[in-house]
Design goal:
- By secondary structure, the chain is α/β, with parallel strands linked by helices.
- It has four domains: about 5-185, no CATH class; about 195-360, no CATH class; about 370-585, no CATH class; about 590-690, no CATH class.
- Helix content is about 50%, strand content about 15%.
- It is built from 29 helices and 18 strands.
- Strands 9, 10, 11, 12, 13, 14, 15 and 16 form an eight-stranded mixed beta sheet that branches.
- A hairpin with a 2-residue loop joins strand 1 (about 55-60) and strand 2.
- The protein is globular, with a radius of gyration of 28 Å.
């Protein structure tokens, strides 16, 4: 039984966070909406839901507070719908079974209306319209719908059986304050998946134990039937997949057609053709088999770390093609790791197990050196005092979700807690997904940011690993990141005050990306860091640009879904072409890239004969004036948009071309590449800079 005092304190802290979040959103009267936002982030982090987004619709007999839709290209769609009961009472009160049933009925009412064409009666260019239209268009592909109840009360309905609705399996999930409290106090680890093969599938899984003297783990080799694997995935879905695998599949998408063909045409050969799956668990129960040997009766804490495509393919073959997978068998390597080591060991097993495919492009672990150093910088870097006093504050980077609350709880006394909050204000807390949002906006990928926090983080990580795999943030990187965070948060407030009625997240990222592009990324980030705010001139520019951005995105071609339109590169191409006059006073604030430094003479290697294509590349570089190369080098340094090695190459090209010499082919190729990237990000070589 959880301590009532501890539960009350936890509830009080939650309510404080919601009050702060609602005030930041400018909607104090809508704290239930802030609670929905907060909980969607949490259960998404726990891996219990798709990329959910808050969206509110309520009429008699129907209500919804958010949705997540995975209308897959493979012909299968999954839908999550959320409803909130937010009481704002501490200690938490009981939410009766009848109240919960009523809430689920209201979600069912909304789903029926959405399937019947609800979008036709909702005002276009609104988030509610987009939600209803997206569900309507995916209705023939949706095979599973999950209804989530989110509440700060204590639910008295522990379990609700699956139901059927128009050939859709409807499942029910309840996240009440007790479940959330236990999740947080377990280190934000998802509830372990526990499977009793004998009880649930009437089978014992024969296995062979690998010989090992290592006390930290044990390994077993086994054969799973397709029927059992399909049943497990059908029940637990993406929760079964370790975070690295889940994130990668979410980003990359398609189910392997070759695997599916084998399932459908040659199921008895599946074991021979397929590499199998690797999984981890923290507990395994073995029993003696009648014919001799050992078998796995049950496992606890099951996670698939390699073989997500195999598992999903079997599931989809059953769902889409009604495949008989009783003849399909899959090799399983099960590694049993001590529970206390699970958090650190499983990501490593996942990384190495996936070393032969592209999952290793991105390490989604909070233990990545990039994030570890970001945390260190945030704990040790004081922001300049800005209120006329000597009081300084820090920005708090949550490398792992919940670190801020944990840090407060460690302070102990009320006076120390108050002091911590003064030096680490809640408004200055940011997470891994926030970091990715700030960076991808500044780097002018607003269409990626619009795809949602998790997908944007995955894409940011993959891009980081591909373009700058050895990047460890330094103090300058950190300060400029905080400047981007300040600009982003100020833009959120400015745009909320305009009361556009929806799409705030899209308007913010597109507005700032447009400004970055049209100022050649020369907004003075160092000045924003020093002053810990943006100038009135920049604030006014954000307001002006946001109006044009809003008018553009709510008029997608062919009356398309606005939310989906914002996720497309074509949307960004259209926004880039917007003609908006920026005030001269803003131009005067931009970083001056003119350089008076003399170009140092250098010796260049003797030019050798090359193929015509190579000669053309070199000549293209030589045709670009040295001043342009100096400016792009300075621009890359000031904005942080070009790696140091590219800045150096640009400087070298300036020196070489100033002497009427020719670069080598490697330098020329890098020069063309870096100039194209700079121009993509807004550098304009044909416009006077300064």
């Amino acid at each position: 039984m959880d301590s009532l005092d501890e539960l009350k304190n936890f509830t009080d802290n939650l309510h404080s966070n919601i009050i702060y979040a609602s005030e930041e959103e400018g909607s104090e009267s809508l704290r239930s909406q802030a609670f929905t936002h907060y909980m969607l982030d949490e259960i998404q982090e726990a891996g219990d839901t798709l990329e959910g987004q808050a969206c509110y619709y309520k009429v008699r007999g129907a209500e919804v507070c958010g949705y997540g839709l995975e209308a897959g290209e493979e012909g299968v769609g999954n839908l999550d719908l959320f409803i909130t009961i937010y009481n704002q009472v501490s200690p938490p009160t009981t939410v009766t079974a009848s109240t919960i049933e009523t809430a689920f009925k209201r979600l069912a009412g909304f789903l029926k209306m959405a399937f019947d064409g609800l979008y036709k009666s909702i005002e276009e260019a609104s988030p509610e319209f987009d939600m209803a239209l997206a569900i309507y268009e995916a209705r023939s592909r949706i095979k599973t719908a999950r209804f989530f109840l989110l509440t700060d009360g204590i639910a008295k309905l522990g379990f609700k059986s699956e139901q059927e609705f128009k050939n859709i399996t409807v499942k029910y999930e309840i996240w009440d304050i007790l479940r959330f409290y236990r999740y947080v106090n377990s280190g934000r680890q998802a509830e372990p998946i526990q499977i009793d093969f004998q009880e649930e599938y009437a089978t014992i899984v024969p296995c062979v134990a690998a010989q090992s003297n290592n006390s930290d783990y044990r390994s077993y080799l086994a054969i799973l039937s397709g029927t059992v694997l399909n049943g497990i995935y059908s029940r637990y879905g993406a929760r079964l997949l370790e975070l690295n695998v889940r994130s990668f599949l979410q980003a990359k998408g398609k189910v392997n057609q070759g695997i599916r063909n084998t399932i459908l045409k040659e199921p008895e050969k599946f074991l021979a053709y397929n590499n199998g799956i690797s999984a981890t668990a923290h507990t395994v129960e073995l029993v003696d088999l009648p014919q001799g040997g050992k078998g796995i009766k049950s496992v606890k804490g099951l996670q698939i770390v390699n073989g997500g495509q195999t598992t999903a393919s079997i599931y989809y073959a059953v769902k889409i093609n009604k495949a008989d997978v009783s003849k399909v068998f899959v090799q399983l390597k099960l590694t049993v790791v001590n529970e206390e080591m699970l958090k650190d060991t499983v990501p490593l097993i996942s990384r190495y197990a996936n070393s032969q495919n592209k999952v290793n492009e991105a390490d989604f672990s909070a233990n990545d050196p990039f994030h570890v150093e970001m945390e260190s910088l945030s704990r040790n870097t004081w922001a300049p005092a800005t209120d006329g006093t000597q009081r300084q504050t820090r920005w708090f980077y949550e490398r792992a979700r919940g670190q801020y609350t944990d840090a407060i709880n460690r302070e102990g006394t009320a006076s120390r807690v108050q002091q911590f909050k003064l030096s680490h204000p809640n408004v200055q807390r940011f997470s891994k997904t926030d970091l990715a949002k700030f960076e991808n906006t500044w780097d002018q990928y607003p269409h990626i940011v619009s795809q949602g926090a998790q997908k944007n983080f995955v894409e940011f990580t993959i891009r980081l690993k591909n373009e700058n795999p050895d990047l460890i943030p330094n103090l300058q990187f950190y300060r400029r990141l905080i400047a981007k965070a300040i600009m982003f948060k100020k833009a959120e407030k400015i745009i909320a005050d305009q009361k556009y009625g929806g799409y705030r997240a899209n308007i913010v990222t597109y507005t700032l990306a447009w400004l970055a592009f049209n100022t050649s990324s020369r907004i003075d980030l160092d000045k924003i860091w020093r002053e810990q705010t943006i100038s009135p001139v920049l604030a006014e520019a954000i307001k002006k640009v946001s109006r044009k951005v809003y008018s553009s995105i709510i008029n997608p071609p062919g009356n398309a879904n606005v939310t989906e339109w914002c996720k497309k590169k074509a949307c960004w191409d259209k926004i880039q072409d917007l003609l908006i006059d920026l005030p001269l006073s803003l131009k005067e604030e931009l970083v001056d890239l003119n350089s008076n430094s003399s170009i140092v003479e250098t010796k260049v290697k003797t030019y050798i004969r090359l193929p015509e294509a190579a000669l053309n590349t070199i000549q293209e570089v030589c045709n670009i004036p040295p001043l342009i190369w100096m400016q792009v080098s300075a621009w890359g340094k000031e904005t942080g948009n070009l790696p140091a090695i590219w800045q150096s190459t640009a400087t070298q090209l300036a020196e070489i071309t100033a002497l009427n010499e020719k670069p080598n082919l490697k330098q020329a190729k890098i020069g063309i590449q870096l100039l194209e990237e700079a121009e993509r990000l807004g550098f304009n070589r044909f416009q006077e800079v300064g």
